[in-house]
Amino acid sequence: MSTAVRPTVLVVDDETSILDSVRILLKTEGFTPHVAHGGRAGLEALATMRPDIVVSDVRMPGVDGLQLLAAAHAQDPTLPVVLMTAQATLQSAIQAVNDGAFYYLQKPFRNDELVAIVRRAAETRTLRVENQRLTQEIKRRDRTGVVPPAGAARAWREALRMAETVAPTDSTVLVTGESGTGKEVVARWIHEQSARTDATFASINCGALPESLLESELFGHTKGSFTGAVKDKQGLFQAAGGGTFFLDEIGETTPATQVKLLRVLQQREVIPVGATEPVPIDVRLVAATNRDLEEEVRRGTFRGDLYYRLNVIAIHLPPLRERRDDIPLLADSFLRRAAQLRGEEAKTLAPGALDEMVAYQWPGNVRELENAMERAVILTPGDVIPATALPEKITARKVEPLVAERTPASPTLEAIERAYVTWVLQNEGGNKSRAAEVLGIDPSTLYRKLARYGVEA
After folding, report:
1. Cα–Cα distance measured from residue 438 to residue 237, given in angstroms and rounded to the nearest whole number
2. 209 vs 53: CA distance, rounded Å
3. For residues 203 and 244, what is the distance between their CA atoms, to the nearest angstrom?
4. Is the model's pLDDT at 20 over the cut of 90?
5. C-alpha pair distances (Å), 64 with each of 40, 70, 85
6. Number of helical (H) and strand (E) elements in the chain, helices listed first
7. Which of these, 113, 83, 119, 85, lies nearest to 98 by C-alpha position?
8. Cβ pair 177, 291 in contact under 8 A
9. pLDDT band for position 33 (cuts 50, 70, 90)
10. I need a labelling partner for 155 at 20 to 30 A (CA). Which of 33, 70, 165, 439 fits?
11. Domains of the chain
12. Reported pTM
């Protein structure tokens, strides 16, 4: 609704006296009335304003009330339309109701009768809009699987807040984080929150295909461009036209593919394999990687110009061990989803099982947690999941100390680096941002080093 306190009412009639009396009545009763003299003026008003309720005469020259009703519902199916007429018949009333009129009011009417109907229409409008909002929210969550920000860990809330901020734009987004942290979930969240939500969401894992096949899938190819190319094929950049294209593990691409991706971002066009003419594209790009691309650029294994084109908006997803507050929320979500798929009541975790899960390091992150919950549901005959239903590696974990008491006689370079990094982290009180500054590395690089060391901060 345009306003929850004073609902806006568009009154349409070809009699000035009716317009004046209804406008004064509704304004006195706490509404915000706007009047239109005749059906054509009513159509023009609908095109320029978004009323909460329409009150219209049926019989008007040019555009009648039923035509106005159809136009109003074409614009907004939740908009209540009250029709008035001095020549009511059973047939016209039936037609109006069948066409979706909220109420069919016969002239002359009592003032309190009209006010009561408009108030009821306002309440109905509020309920319809709220129901539509909740339905869309539920559908979005079902599609994305994203745990809503309220009540989630701070780091996850911040990532989602950034995603929601950038979603309405067409800016390129780079999502970083370890495997299984939910990079594609966030990419879908961005797509669902954007103006492109009704178009295609396409995705591809750049590390899953050899270079030749990856280029064909991304950019398409022409007939005869290589052995087996028996016909022209449209690439995913074209297939996702108007929508969002998610490039997962973009750090796995070869230098040759990186050059072509740079052209896509700079020129907004692709050249299919075997073709000579570029094809324009309209697609929003979201890329993801579990690598430290800044480090890859320094090493010369990833193009710097492509990195800076991709890194317009950066969203870092911390590993699950850095957002332990999310573990109970995610576990509950996965348990409810598993129950829904099996047509059963949702199971709950015993306190001991939840304690084990919160203490576990989750090297596979959210994906590992989801698999563990599915396994637990299958293995548990009752309603409460005990710790024994969890994978053994969760309950029989071994926590390494931050710094080993004894070092090898001839320590490796990695062992020295590990000791130094963890010593700095310890000196900074476990604050990873400050530790990264002291070490002169990006925080995401520090996260990956700690994960590789298998240490617990």
Report:
1. 42
2. 55
3. 8
4. yes
5. 8, 10, 11
6. 19, 16
7. 83
8. no
9. very high
10. 439
11. 8-134 (3.40.50.2300), 150-318 (3.40.50.300), 321-395 (1.10.8.60), 399-457 (1.10.10.60)
12. 0.56
